[in-house]
Amino acid sequence: MNIYQRLTLVCLTTLLTNACQPDPHDTGGAGLVYCVEGSPESFNPQLVTSGTTIDAISQHLYDRLLDINAQTGELLPGLATGWLVSNDGLSYRFQLRENVVFHHTEYFKPSRTLNADDVVFTFNRILLPEHPFHQTATEYPYFDSMEWRQLVAEVKAISPYEVEFRLNKPDSSFLSTLATDFAAVLSAEYGAKLQAENKLPDLDHLPVGTGPFLFRHYQKDVLIRYFRHPQHWRQGSNLQQLVIDIVPDSTKRVAKLLTHECDVAPIPRLAELELLSKRQDFVVDVQTSMNVGYWAFNTQKPPLNNVKVRQALALAVNKQNILQAVYFGQAEQADSLLPPNSWAYQKPQLTEAYNPEKAKVLLAEAGFAKGFSLDIWAMPVQRLYNPNALKMAELMQADLAQIGVKARIVSYEWNTFRRKLTQAEHDSVLIGWSADNADPDNFLRPLLSCAAAVSGSNRANWCDEHFDNLLQQAVNTADLNERRAFYLQAQQYQAQQMPLMPIAHSKRFQVRSSNVSGVAINPYGGVNFAMAGKH
Amino acid sequence: MILHYLFRRLFLLAFVFVALTIFAFSLSYLFPGDVLSNFTGLRNISPADEVMLTRQLGLDQNYLQQYLLFVQRLLQGDWALSFSSQQNVLTEMLQVMPATLELAAYALFLSLLVGIPLGIVAAVRKDKWLDKVISTLALIGFSVPIFWWALLLIMVFSLSLGWLPTSGRLGVLYEIPTVTGFMLPDILLSEQSYRQQAFIDAIRHMLLPSVVLATYPTTVMIRFTRDSMLDVLEQNYIKTARAKGLTRLQVLYTHGLRNALLPVTRQVGLQFSTLITLAMITEVIFSWPGIGRWLIDSIYQRNFPAIQGGVLLVSSLVILVNMLTEIMHTLFNPLARKF
Fold first, then answer.
1. Cα separations in angstroms, B171 against A260, A262, A281, B34, B205
2. CB environment A494-517: b (16+ within 10 A), e (fewer)
3. Has residue A249 been placed in a domain?
């Protein structure tokens, strides 16, 4: 072999080895940056409810048995290719997709694809106290609020690709529950590995899922780095990496958008929208979202335990004014807890427009002709459903003064605020709710049922047997028209009893650079980058 | 003689450190909340753990014993845990410290690079228009509030012109493994194919923060170099050198500079504490992940162990640097040796 042949050989080998083994961690610096307002609390959606966390983790890392069509609210196959509901509504069977590959990461190398064991492992964690991972979390807030443990009797594998959920009572919102971002499917094999290594908490910190992106790195309050999951069953995105950049300050977020350090960002501050919508290099996406901002009265405290007082207060507030000043016109006035795009929505006939005169009459009938004083708790943080609770409280203070009610505005630091709310120390509070799925049950039950009054998400502390019955009857039937009738009754009853006053359904905004496409904002949950691309 | 001097300095240093640790120690008592939590950084301590920890930390003994145990833990690196992350505060600070030091180093370098020549020029051209321009600029730079100046630069160079990024040390799409904690060396040590782009990107990121942070020390350097140069130029040996027929440049270089810069080296050390304070503000504005931002976040979060650790580490660093520059100054400058 002469020197040239040798050289060629060396060159060829180098070329071949290089070509055959591209470094999977080398992204070439390409990818998409999504700027969010806060760090996630966990990397497991089972354990959280905050929208910030869900946005940052669930759609990227995990898949669910079912998905929701963002436009129609209809259920689509996810990890389950088909499902069968028994006639009595007590058994749900899911046929699982085959060859679904779990994430291959530095801390876990899966040896098998998804099967029924993974689904059983995932949902039994919430259900069974003896499950090895059940105790590693103190609560499963979403599943607790929908009483998962009372609802589900058993989750079992029928065959390697078939799973059955047995319920204790029929629940027509059950499929919607499984389609929420919280019902992410985990890996049983990873669970077993962590158990063997005695590193149980890692299940929620170092995630392994089947979603379009896999976990690479997380630095608290700085960023989350995801790489593309190359073997995702639904090949869509060709993004090499997705970086979630944590920018708590909304002004800074806008600045980063302007310098194109962020490709996509949610914008809760509506005042900034105008600036961005004028520029050519940005697109503003709007989505009427499934949320509601409301004013809840603590119905356990006098004089708010009196229906007439509550009705009077609701009549005295000028909602139109609030929509303009707080939401900058970017929200719809709420007449019911349900947003108008929900299938069970109906404008309750009892709601009346702003009418301080009638409010005075009602107050006088209730024996408070001279008025009384009242605390309004305004939450200290910005949320989509209420971008500025303090300003809202100030407007309401002025309105209430018209009917002789002296309002005092109270606010605490957010954690303290929530703790004190759960202890029901408030008279009334300005807060809101974002739905997790398209089902109307997801609005009414967590906000106003007796169970929610115990678990704490019912800020009105309102426990009414008639209302609870209506909700129960609605989920007991599978007939959509019957269900709708029950929900209409429930909405009417709520509007008449007025445990809380719905104020607005805010629209959800997102700004993206015009070279980014395929980003879906889902009215029921997290942002999805599975189909995103950047040109 | 020199040894005696060094010994005296070291003794003073030790004394300052004792005072500092006593202050840090007392913070655990002065902060609101549970003393045991403040000392350990643990939250929701169970009664069984409480008994054990109380014994371990010596909280059942007198203050002196407690203090000695506290210092012992400090020296062993066994610092309290941060409330928010439940990690050792020292480990956490050592992770963010390099970013601050890097920023401070670039700013200091920039201020020397710009400040000293401008100061010399101003001194040589005393009372001419160039001197007036430089002195005016220095006065403006000295008086400008740094946060306003930073925002102004962001407005112009990032938002309007779109040339430079507004925050961070590096574009988030580049993933550079941490080896030294300093960004530029780390990029050069990494094996990523985008090393070169990342390097340029890192420089673009550091440009604005460095300029902002360098502004104040530069103006101080200008004024100080100018004054010290003017002093030196008045000296007889300069006049002698001129009279001997050396050119102005020769005189300036061989006789003026060395003597004029001696007090300036001392300024570098004295500026360090101001630099760290200003770095905190700069870090917050530019989201620079350094110790300043970390400390200010800790204050917002009422993260007492972190505040305690941060105060201890940052002030130790400032004292140490001050002491070192003073020693160096003494060694270089025979006139300052008052042994």
1. 11, 10, 20, 41, 8
2. bbebbbbbbbbbbbbbbbbbeebe
3. yes
Q: What is the percent of chain B with per-residue pLDDT over 70, rounded to a whole number?
A: 98
Instruction: Please tell me the pTM assigned to this model.
Output: 0.75
Show residues of chain B in contact with A252, CB under 8 Å: 166-167, 287
Interface test with A, best of B287, B297, B301 (most A CBs within 10 A): B287
Number of domains in chain A: 3
Are A324 and A248 in a shared domain? no
Mean pLDDT by 10 residues, chain A (535 residues): 47 41 58 87 85 85 87 83 88 91 91 91 91 86 80 91 90 84 90 90 90 88 88 80 86 86 78 77 80 90 88 89 85 85 73 82 87 88 82 90 89 79 88 80 86 80 89 84 88 88 86 84 76 80
- B292 CA: distance to closest CA in chain A (Å): 15
Complex confidence, ipTM: 0.75
Q: What is the DSSP string of A360-387?
A: HHHHHHTT-TT--EEEEEE-SS-BTTBS
Domain that holds residue A493: 291-508
Asked if the structure places residue A521 within a domain, the reply is no
| Chain B residues with beta carbon closer than 8 angstroms to that of A247 | 167, 287
Q: Tell if the CB–CB gap between A29 and B198 is shorter than 8 Å.
A: yes
Provide the pLDDT for residue B336: 64
B145: contact with A, CB 8 A cutoff: no
A402 class by beta-carbon count within 10 Å (0-12 exposed, 13-18 middle, 19+ buried):
middle
pLDDT, residue A269, reads 65
| CATH code for position A264 | 3.40.190.10
With a cut of 70, list the residues of chain B below it in pLDDT: 1, 336-339
Please choose, from the candidates A467, A160, A260, A330, the residue with its C-alpha nearest in 3D space to the C-alpha of residue B159: A260
Q: What residues in A contact B166, CB-CB < 8 Å?
A: 252, 255-256, 259, 261
A364 & A404 share domain: yes
Is the Cβ of B301 closer than 8 Å to some Cβ of chain A?
no
Task: Say if residue A434 is in the same domain as residue A472.
Answer: yes
pLDDT, tens only, B36-55: 888 887 777 778 887 887 88
Option in B166, B174, B193 nearest A255 (CB): B166
Taking each helix axis as running N to C, give the angle between helix B304-332 and helix B257-285, from 0 to 180 degrees, rounded to the nearest 10.
170
Domain boundary among A169, A204, A239: A204
